[in-house]
Amino acid sequence: MTSIDKNPVAPRVIVREAAAPRPRWQVWLIRPEVVTLLLLVIAAIVATRLSPFFADLGFILESSTYYIEFAIVALVLTIVIISGEIDLSPAAQMALSACLFGTAFKAGAPIPVAMGVSLLSGLVMGAFNGFFVTVLRLPSIIVTIGTLILYRGLAQVLAGDKSISGFPGWFVGIDYRMVGIVPVPVLVFIAASILLGLFLGITIYGRQIYQIGTSEIAAIHAGIRVRRIKMGLFIASGLTSSIAGLMVASRLGSVRYDLATGGELTMVLIVMLGGTYIFGGRGSILGTFLAAWLLVIIATGMTVANIAINAQLTIMGLLLIVSIIATNAIYARSQR
Amino acid sequence: MTVSAPLVSARGISKSFGGVEVLRNVDLDLMPGEVHALLGENGAGKSTFAKILAGVHRPTRGTIELGGKPVEIASPIAAQRLGITLIHQEPISFPDLSVAENLVIGQVGAKPLGRVRWAELAKEARRLMGLLNVPIDVTVPMRGLSIADQQMVEIARALASDSRLIIMDEPTAALTPKEVETLFKIVRRLREEGRTIIFISHRLEEVRAICDRVTIFRDGDKIETATTASLTDADIIRRMIGRPVADYLHRGTSHVGEVALSVRALTLPGRFENISFDIRKGEIVGLGGLVGAGRTDVARAIFGVAPATSGVIEIDGKPVTINEPTDAIGLGIALVSEDRAIAGIFRTLPVETNITAAVPKRIAPKGIIRRTVEKALAKESVEKLSIRLASVRQPIGELSGGNQQKAILARWLLAEPDILILDEPTRGIDIGVKAEFYDMIGELAAGGRAILLISSELPELLALSDRILVMSEGKLTADIPRAEASQETIMHAAVPRSGRHTVSGAAA
Ligand SMILES: Nc1ncnc2c1ncn2[C@@H]1O[C@H](COP(=O)(O)OP(=O)(O)OP(=O)(O)O)[C@@H](O)[C@H]1O
Ligand SMILES: [Mg+2]
């Protein structure tokens, strides 16, 4: 009860606008993921015309193992980009951690220990990136271009120009292990997609990551632990890269300093094709998941169609630019 | 008034956003040499109408004539060419460019490849800021200016454009009486030059002081256009809201308890020095002063956004360390920041997400967000503060300025802080909701919360505060008990003695 002498006021009726807001299906239709899905369907149809192989799910799953490690890292990269940062060093982290694994193995460490070394290195490399970005507050694009060169260089110093091989049979050939018709790496990708999708979609951390990416200053004012979350993301990126590095090592049966060279381009391409906004705040794991399959079909399709590797790169570059522009346009439209 | 042809005549203007009609069939004539107020509740459609004239939005229906000729105002640039300038409700600027650069950006007439003469640019910028009588260094970047200073730069930019129609969307919301007076001098001069000015404000006394005619909007309809003198405040409010508004009466200060927040010798060089005060539980302490006096900096320091370099903060008698807002929130402090566009809203995220942003534990006790709880909390806030929206899933950027402000208030009310710091909390909020909000603040204090209220609106400070602190040039200059507080005592303590600010009057 307040001591305020109010005039008798009728209970306030909040007048809402009469017309209904934009129907839900329209909102859905202009989501970039839907565009990715459409492209995926078109690509699948075109590819099936091109070669009957593509009608075979087993063939697609098999060919996907060349890209699936990048796709797994791209899932984490999606979250990093949504938070308003970027990490360009994962491919180099894959190489360095895999070389550390190989070197430890050559030095006589049992495989599990060598794997532990590799995972630990991923953690440290991620934390190193995170330190520059969150503590020294440097732009992540510059920091991770720097560490991209640094990590790759260290891998070369460590492993020289020779490849390290001779891993025991049980470690090699992860891409030939199947559950039904699904190779294990693909299974890992699917599981990671579901987990990270849930993380981003229904947990409070996921929510806060979108908020940070939308407005970091507002997030700080709302009491969100921006620096801690970003540090966590860079560490997650490092850890995932080292896992991906191990998967490559297993698939190839050997490691070399140039493992996964240029992989950062593929990863960024997947994330952008999936409709994640390059300036942060928007995007989804679903988009990246779909985009990974889109990339698999396009890349395999080009190989089947005998397109030269240089031309393939050009096409990938064009795709990257087009997808960034398209995503921007879609978001600008939904904002009017 | 002499009979002359209107400069602008808008006929049958309607505007819909995604199926929601927010302006309905508005007719309006604007005369040369008049200051014309647009009035209405939050979300009534004032800014939308202004943006249509300034080419930001295209009307869904309707025609606009300018100087007797029908025109298409297709873009802000087109509007500029036609001599129409809009001062936005939310200052939009390029934060990394200097004040001088921001002043000339977007001016028509510049050659695209022409050479930029930096010295001339700075000189012109200084002249413009001199007209406004504000001591802003034109070479510093926009980032870091207070909202009021940003607002002054926006105004200066409009002056530089030499337009026939200048639309000011809540230009005074963050200004103190001194700056408002300077602005009014300029508006009067523009009027004498025969220009037309649209003035949007929620402060009726300002409308009375400067506007020849008013147009009142309600829910997207134009209710009436009349000369200001022909309507009483009560008439205006009735047409705006459709009901009378209760006067806010101070609730008395019977229930003041222990000291909740105590700061001692707080100093941040260049911003404020040696600030000491206490706030007790149940007490509302006002903090007045001119723009740039350092009030916001003190609030930001207590909240950990930009901590002080020396000094002590005590909560419930215990010294605490606050390095970032998370720490402050953990200690039960909340800050409603003056800068809602940058430090408040997540523009593209839904209203509900914005409202619940500071209470993660309540919407996700185990880390997983409970949609139903979140939705319920958001809906409750929307009702309580009568936030006008189409859906709580709507991006907050689509709400009107005042409704965004209400959503940010709702966010911090949900957090149930023990110590609530409000920095210009009613910036852009309409008269009807303001009274309700004052009640809410009174109730919070009655419930034992300690409240620090920073406001440039003296009537607001006087109505709500149990005690008023005044800052001037980074120092506390007065601690005025309620009984002695008046506009004069506050302004007396607020005006700097050192002469850094020139005394107003030099401008006209
Ligand atoms: N871009 C947009 N998309 C959807 N709705 C919008 C958009 N811009 C404005 N609206 C809606 O139009 C209505 C009128 O908004 P407007 O900004 O004109 O109000 P206003 O009278 O200026 O209010 P205030 O006093 O709060 O500034 C509001 O209900 C708002 O939600
Ligand atoms: Mg407005």
From TrEMBL, chain A:
InterPro entries cross-referenced by the UniProt entry: ABC_transp_permease (IPR001851)
Keywords recorded for this protein, A-Z: Cell inner membrane, Cell membrane, Membrane, Transmembrane, Transmembrane helix, Transport
UniProt entry tagged with the keyword DNA damage: no
Record carries keyword Secreted: no
Localization, UniProt: Cell membrane
TM annotation in the entry: 34-54, 66-84, 115-134, 141-159, 179-205, 233-253, 259-279, 286-309, 315-332
Superkingdom of source: Bacteria
Membrane topology category: Multi-pass membrane protein
Quaternary structure (record): The complex is composed of two ATP-binding proteins (LsrA), two transmembrane proteins (LsrC and LsrD) and a solute-binding protein (LsrB).
Function text: Part of the ABC transporter complex LsrABCD involved in autoinducer 2 (AI-2) import. Probably responsible for the translocation of the substrate across the membrane.
Protein name: Autoinducer 2 import system permease protein LsrD
Lineage of producing organism: Bacteria, Pseudomonadati, Pseudomonadota, Alphaproteobacteria, Hyphomicrobiales
UniProtKB/TrEMBL annotation, chain B:
InterPro entries: AAA+_ATPase, ABC_carbohydrate_import_ATPase, ABC_transporter-like_ATP-bd, ABC_transporter-like_CS, P-loop_NTPase
Source organism (scientific name): Kaistia terrae
Pfam family, one: ABC_tran
Domain of life of the native organism: Bacteria
ABC transporter domain span: 8-244, 254-498
UniProt-listed CDD domains: ABC_Carb_Monos_I, ABC_Carb_Monos_II
Entry keywords, A to Z: ATP-binding, Cell membrane, Membrane, Nucleotide-binding, Repeat, Sugar transport, Translocase, Transport
Protein name: Sugar ABC transporter ATP-binding protein
Family: Belongs to the ABC transporter superfamily.
GO molecular function, one term: ATP binding
Gene3D superfamilies for this protein: P-loop containing nucleotide triphosphate hydrolases
UniProt keyword annotation of ATP-binding present: yes
